[in-house]
Amino acid sequence: MNGFGILAGIGLILFGVRFLRKGLDRLFGGKLLLWLSLAVTSPWKAFIGGICAGVVAPSSTGLALLTAHMTSVAKLSTGLMLAVLLGANVGLTVAVQLVAFHLHDYAGLFVICGIVAFLFLKRELFRGIGQSILALGFVFLAIHLISKDASTFSDSADLREFLLLLQGHPWLVLLVVSILTIFLQSSTATIGVGLGLAASGLFDVALMVPWVLGASLGLAITSLLAGWSSLEGRRLGTAHMITKAICAFACMIFFTSAMSAFAIWPSSLERQAAMFYTEFNLLAGLAAMPLLGVIERIVRFLIPDQSPNGLAIETSFLDESVLESPPFALARATRETLRMIDHVRLMFKNFWEAFSRQDVDLARRLQREDDTVDHINLELASYLGRITEEKSSTDSHWQLALLGFANEIESAGDLIDKHLCDLLIKQRAEGVILRESDRQALQNIYTQIIERFELASDLLASRNSEKAAAFLAGKDSFNEGARNAQRVHYEQLHLASRSDIATSAFFLDYLNAFRRINSHLSSLGYSLHRLERTAYDSPTTHGKASSDRLSSSPA
């Protein structure tokens, strides 16, 4: 049965790391994204914020997606987000540091305490803590299984000869471990396997150095693959991989110096490996900080803004690989909703261009664009419906809010397609020309709606309650302006000619459609209002929510 303990230990490490990530998701959830967005104001603050994020969310894939999301939504530079990601790499090593302590003798205690808190306590905070402790117990137990089973091979002459052969080929070890990290999707799991083998006495410094470097390089490649679906994700992942590859290859070229840095910590081989892992990521981050601008220019040259045919690159932000982590999956769904808003806003701008030029052909082409909005909405609804992992109450309500708001945006697209474009085509066919005063009134209202689109995008990205209150107040101001435009229009009717009176129906139809589009946009403010009230009423929420700053939703 020799060898099965090692395989079982690897499986248990993977499960433990995944369970730990979900426990920390339960503790921090979507708060991490909001906090990090506020903290990232300079490269060094971004680096420190990334360290904190890596400690509380030990998921290289999730953090790669999170930083790519922030780059796209908050319009933060690739260099700034690279600082976050490099800092996160340092924070991720904390989990390895915990594993490196000889705590596997107490794995049973961790498991018992974790089970009690996770299964029998009701508050979300305590259950999250219990789940994290239980996950650490699983990892410690896995290290014990690996080291115990590997120790049975320690007397094998053939195995020792094979390991001696590997010591002479550190580049091969680097390559194999990088591939292993990509396969396991976790540098923590890869390092954990190495620590278990080191605890058995099978590994020495000459093997652990390329093992740790391979895990770090594999982590960078994993982040590139995770963010490949978006332009900013590709740029960020490429910048991250270039940085880590240069540092890892430098250590391999100066291998003797790397081994000296490894052995500088007088302790067990496991502790030395963990310290070297932290040391490498910290020094790599510090070395890259002064060069962030240069690295960003390089990746922008390698990955330009446009595709070779000159069309803007547009890809879905939905990623199947993060469905098991609700906060990150909801961040992707939020970005896709923003893409949907951008598409409908562009439709509305193109409609106004068609209206201004009385261009029927453009209106007909524009109607076909609504199919894209319908497709995005269907894919988004399907994606949100598949986020079935256990979620916090805030995440659950945000999931429902995104579903509702996406439907509202899709309805706004339908208004442009089936109402406004049809109305323009009918107006052109009947030869009706609106009065200049009516056209100017519609121009003013159109400008306000474009501003409302911009505010809705900003509000969706920030989920700020104060902005939500201002957004809802803006709806009342908009409606008052629309009513005033309608009143002025009616007052001018008694002075108008018979032909002008015939255009009144078209003006009022345009005006009502504009008002309905604004109502669909305003639904986001009410969704955030309900979300804030839910957070306030939830027994697991600490502190007073800011929902009292928002006006109540309509009946």
Any descriptors?
disordered C terminus, 80% helix, mainly alpha, 555 residues, 21 helices, elongated
Question: Short summary of the structure?
Answer:
The chain has 555 residues and is mostly helical.
Q: Could you outline the blueprint of secondary structure elements for this entry?
A:
Layout: H1 4-28, H2 31-39, H3 43-56, H4 60-73, H5 78-100, H6 107-120, H7 124-151, H8 157-167, H9 170-184, H10 187-199, H11 205-226, H12 231-253, H13 255-262, H14 269-288, H15 292-302, H16 326-357, H17 360-385, H18 393-430, H19 436-462, H20 465-493, H21 498-537
Helix pairs in contact: 1-7, 1-10, 3-5, 4-5, 4-11, 4-12, 4-16, 5-10, 5-12, 5-14, 5-15, 6-7, 7-10, 9-11, 10-11, 10-14, 11-12, 11-14, 12-14, 12-15, 16-17, 16-18, 16-19, 17-18, 18-21, 19-20, 19-21, 20-21
Describe this structure in words.
The protein is elongated and about 105 Å long. The protein has helices at residues 4-28, 31-39, 43-56, 60-73, 78-100, 107-120, 124-151, 157-167, 170-184, 187-199, 205-226, 231-253, 255-262, 269-288, 292-302, 326-357, 360-385, 393-430, 436-462, 465-493, 498-537. With 555 residues, the chain is mostly helical. The longest helix has 40 residues, at 498-537.
Q: Over all CA atoms, what is the radius of gyration?
A: 29 Å
Strand content range:
under 5%
Low-confidence stretches: 307-313, 535-555
Helical percent range?
over 70%
In round numbers, the mean pLDDT is 79
- Give me the count of strands: 0
Distance between the termini: 67 Å
Biggest pleated sheet: none
Order of secondary-structure elements: HHHHHHHHHHHHHHHHHHHHH
The general outline is elongated
Task: Classify the secondary structure makeup into a structural class.
Answer: mainly alpha
* SS field, number of helical segments: 21
